[in-house]
Predict the structure.
Amino acid sequence: MTKKIFRGILISSVITLLLSLVFIIGVQYEIYRESGYSALQSKAYLISPSAEANDLQKYSSAKERITLINEKGEVLYDNKAVAAEMENHLSREEIKEALSTGTGYSVRHSETLGVNSCYYAIKLESGNILRVADETLSVGAVVVELLPPIAAIALLAFVLALVLASVISKRILKPINEIDLDGPLEDTAYEELSPFISKISAQRRKIGHQIEELKSRRREFDIIAENMSEGLLLTDTKGHILTHNSGIRRFFGVTDDINGQNILTINRSEVFREVFENIKESRHYESTVTLGGRCYQVTANPVFDGNNTPCGAVILVVDVTEKEKREKLRREFTANVSHELKTPLTSILGISDMLKNGIVAPDDIKDFGADINKEAQRLLNLVNDIIKLSELDEGAVGETETVDLLKTANEVASSLTKTAEKQGVTLRVEGESTEITAEEALIFEMIYNLCDNAVKYNKEKGSVTVTVGNNNGAPFVSVKDTGIGIAPEHTERIFERFYRVDKGRSRLGGGTGLGLSIVKHIAASFGGKITLQSTLGEGTEITVTFKASQASREGDRVSGGGIQIVFL
């Protein structure tokens, strides 16, 4: 504002100065012209007696040009030129005026002398016209003649205008700049400002209330945003971060404040490039991106200004790693179930077609019937295992009771004795009586699956040892075999559904690939921890350890998937 007032005063001063100079030059020129006219008039009346007496030779060297002209316009005498050679002057303005009124005056360019001249003519008693002429200055010449003093005056006036404009503008604004905004109504420097100051005071109170309300809302927003597990990000249309929560810093792996930075300098994923391409087109955008080995879902929506033009974006980043893992497992499980069901059904269908079409010899019918029974049993086992896993996933655990692990292990061993003898494997149980609170049928199935695998993947004349006991008060059951062992690259996956280390051998043995997965879910249902130790070609030991409280407290269960598996 100071600059505007300063410029206004200075420009006004300069315009006033220029107009004043123009007026002074005009007045000066008029004074000069009037003085020239008076001088010629005086000179003409001074010379007129000599002109009456035809005695003008004494003025031959005069500075002024003196000319005597008769009534016909013929030049009788001229002190600057040969009279006989001069043209008729009857058409001259001053001559015509003198003949008419007695005197005449004009200013024009003299063709004879080649300069601007002013002419004054009087009519003598003899009827002749006496004309006196002298050189005169044009307006431009007057300006040039006056230029040095005018320039000096103009420069001085301009400097003075600069100083005065600066001082006056500061003095005008000083009371305004010193207004106390905390108590504007107490300031009476300018009475004219009272309405304006009243409005400022009212507006200031209104703004203060709005600021407090915004601060309160901002605090609420910050509290909500900082406690979100999701990442929240507000940006402009170019990707510059306006605000963010701690979730964003965690997802991006940064610790510093990133407000003001462009999101593409923090993460150059193609997803974020596409976000802002869609935001500029006012489109909702959703995709996934991998950050730090985890999968995140990015959802972006445009923010519009008052003209319904995109001015920014709200971006929500959600960790969907577990969801993606579950979805992947679901797809794999569906694919595996379809495959596992298809295999025995295909065999049953093929054999039944052969029997239906009578292309099986009577002696082979018994063998084909046995094959159908085997595949049907395999199919039934698979369905039962799938149902069992679904029940465990849903937490479908029956009534719990006190279960003696040693007793249950002996029952498992008894049921697998013939299978072990057929495989040439020695199966024995050792340890001490140890009780836990659980569902006996599930514990039986858990130990059975462990022992069944240990027998099935053992070597000829191998052994399986089931050990039951307490480790610092924590009940455990361990199944150790002397079988083929598990390679290190397979140990972390053997508890997955349908995962088989040796697919060919598993199918020959009638396995469904769900045994260890069921073991994992049962152990998880009762807070167990699985420890696996295996050496390829030497054998495997799997230990399930329950919490010490399992021996005395019911209901201390862990939901499916919460199992801890330790690979040694």
